[in-house]
């Protein structure tokens, strides 16, 4: 596997004001960790979402031999699935600004026949150290919303695509829920309230900071502004019923626990909701949620597609 080095940036360089500590357990809503880019939490989310990710990559119908970019690869779950889809004659470049996460992509593929199809590229999506029109497909998941200037980032990805070839952007969707409306502890409607708080958190912790360019439009419009045409969207339902395996339980429990494990987040909650969550995530409590047989996990993962 080839590794290229180019301009590694830290979060601060992009106006991200988050600490790793503050974001290590931020999975929620749009289904991910905002800003921490923590390998452990990404691995948890990889295990949880793998079935729907396989469905998405199948749906994309990647052509054998295609040259694909995974922009903001994280720990490389999509890099792996794309490398499998492109076949022996294709290739996938995993681009990320985090050397640590690229190392976890390398480890994921170590010893796999897929490793030979993958190259690792450290760099910034807003200034990618690669030539124009190099790729047949660009995939980017849960990354563009971290950029201070989302349209500029997408324009840069447009530049890398061959004319009339596709960018597939995983953003937006519908937030997850899995508890009954009345979970039997605290006030009913807990997940609705957490969802509203999540939006506040997202605004103040992700879409804020130096250089942040406001872009109050939907993703279809954002793609059009960046130069893409024939923009469409397709959503994939994540639906799970018990019994849950350990990965699924750990992920769902983490979704709730992060609201009380992190002081700043906890301070956003009413005392009643904080106490309810503490019981729901505590295996010793009679209200522990993850032995219940009436949980029902639902979430929509959306992929926007546009042509360069
Ligand atoms: C939330 S993670 C998503 C990882 C993976 N695509 C997924 O969906 O699970 C966001 C990733 O984007 C990377 N990233 C954020 N801003 C970036 C930038 N400006 N250039 C390159 N990578 C960036 C982070 O290092 C992180 O790996």
Layout of strands and helices, then pairs:
Layout: E1 2-4, H1 20-23, H2 39-60, E2 67-71, H3 77-86, E3 91-96, H4 99-109, E4 118-122, E5 135-141, H5 150-160, E6 161-170, E7 174-177, H6 190-205, H7 219-225, E8 229-240, H8 246-261, H9 263-266, H10 271-280, E9 297-307
Parallel strand pairs: 1-4, 2-3, 2-5, 3-4, 5-6
Antiparallel strand pairs: 6-9, 7-9, 8-9
Helix pairs in contact: 2-3, 2-8, 8-10
Describe this structure in words.
This protein is of the alpha/beta class. 36% of the residues lie in helices and 20% in strands. The chain contains ten helices and nine strands. Strands 1, 2, 3, 4, 5, 6, 7, 8 and 9 form a nine-stranded mixed sheet that branches. 42% of the residues are buried. About 10% of the residues have low confidence. S-adenosylmethionine (SAM) binds next to helix 2.
Structural descriptors:
single chain, 308 residues, alpha/beta, nine-stranded mixed sheet, 20% strand, binds S-adenosylmethionine
């Amino acid at each position: 596997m080839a590794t290229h080095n180019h301009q590694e940036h830290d979060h601060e360089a992009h106006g991200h004001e988050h600490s790793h500590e503050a974001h290590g357990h931020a999975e929620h809503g749009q289904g991910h960790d905002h800003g921490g880019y923590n390998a452990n939490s990404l691995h948890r989310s990889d295990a949880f979402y793998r079935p729907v990710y396989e469905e998405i990559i199948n749906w994309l119908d990647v052509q054998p031999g295609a040259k694909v970019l995974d922009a903001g690869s994280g720990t490389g779950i999509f890099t792996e699935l794309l490398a499998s889809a492109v076949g022996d004659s294709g290739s996938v470049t995993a681009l990320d600004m985090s050397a640590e996460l690229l190392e976890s992509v390398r480890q994921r593929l170590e010893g796999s026949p897929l490793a030979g199809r993958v190259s690792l590229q450290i760099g910034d999506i807003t200034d990618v150290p690669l030539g124009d029109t190099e790729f047949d497909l660009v995939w980017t998941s849960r990354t563009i919303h971290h950029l201070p200037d989302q349209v500029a980032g997408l324009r840069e990805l447009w530049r890398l695509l061959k004319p009339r070839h596709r960018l597939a952007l995983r953003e937006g969707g519908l937030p997850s829920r899995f508890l009954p409306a009345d979970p039997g502890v605290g006030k009913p409607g807990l997940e609705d309230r957490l969802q509203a708080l999540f939006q506040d958190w997202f605004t103040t912790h992700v879409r804020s900071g130096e250089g942040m360019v406001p872009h109050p439009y939907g993703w279809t419009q954002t793609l059009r502004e960046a130069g893409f045409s024939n923009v469409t969207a397709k959503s994939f339902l994540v639906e799970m019923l018990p019994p849950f395996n350990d990965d699924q339980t750990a992920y769902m429990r983490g979704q709730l626990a992060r609201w009380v494990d992190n002081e700043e987040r906890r301070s956003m909650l009413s005392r009643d909701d904080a106490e309810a969550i503490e019981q729901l995530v505590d295996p010793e409590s009679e209200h522990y949620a993850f032995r219940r047989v009436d949980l029902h996990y639902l979430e929509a993962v959306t992929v926007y597609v546009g042509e360069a």
